[in-house]
Amino acid sequence: MKAAPAGLRMVRVTAGFMAGLAVTLLGLIVVTFLIGRVVPIDPALVVAGDRASPEAYAAARTALGLDLPLHEQLAVYVWNVLNGDLGRSTMTGLTVAEDVARVFPATIELAVAGTLIGVGLGVPLGVLAAARAGRLADHAVRAVALVGYSVPVFWLGLVGLLVFYARLGWVAGPGRLDVAWAYTIPEVTGFVLIDTALAGEPEAMVDALRHLILPASILGYFSMAYVARMTRSLMIGELSQDYVVAARAKGVPEVRILWGHAFRNVAVPLVTVIALTFAHLLEGAVLTETVFAWPGIGLYITQALFAADMNAVLGGTLAVGLGFVLINRTADLIHRRLDARMRQEVRA
Q: Most buried among 43, 173, 227, 253, using CB within 10 Å?
């Protein structure tokens, strides 16, 4: 049986990817809608007010479409979301889509910084633990990773603020910029480091870095714990392979065996691990953003929840879920492509 041409295989893979993505996103939209109907918050009461007359309350329900049957409400919700309409926030007075576009870059910036710290520390520590499996270095890395999994993020954030900001003064406090810069730097991209660079304000960029380093390190610690554990597990499995034993018997330096041979083979699955780490930081930044008053999607959802603004809560949740799904599916596609390429290289 002849193999399908490369172009046809690519079309099939892409079609499968898009179909799976569409089904997943549709499921996410439906789940988000159902959450909005289960939460004990009446959107009509929020819009009309606690002292609204029965007529005003009924008019608010009609305007929001809450008087329709549930399946019709779902159809309207799905249609609106697919057209980019997430409703209007009663908290800000803007559309939820505008709010999400305004606050999401702050979360992405924080998650990217946390991922870079986590990967930069987690990968070498994981390789070290695997190379010294069962020894002191391995136990130390595993202990550090265990603490990263066990300590609540809000507690670690508060302790970090107390020690490094209030006592030592090494970092800046909550927020993204000091008040002196907050209203003078124009928002071009929404990423404060980029915007301060575009504005030609090196002092503002340093101030932004001083605000970013502590919350990013908190998230990076949890990211490091996961990346180190997965790297260690993958490397231990790879170091037990026959080619590693043969390389050691030939006198190949251990550093070359670790990084030139074993790590190269675990790099492909690590792509998925790193992508999932970044996705988890996107959705897991809620508590960190709340502790550090970081104006991202997590703080936005928290404030909207306290304000009983369900459009903002559901829109923000949907945006985070969409980002998670896209990153997850893209990482899976990249993993397949890289894995197939490596198999072809082995055959060659």
A: 227
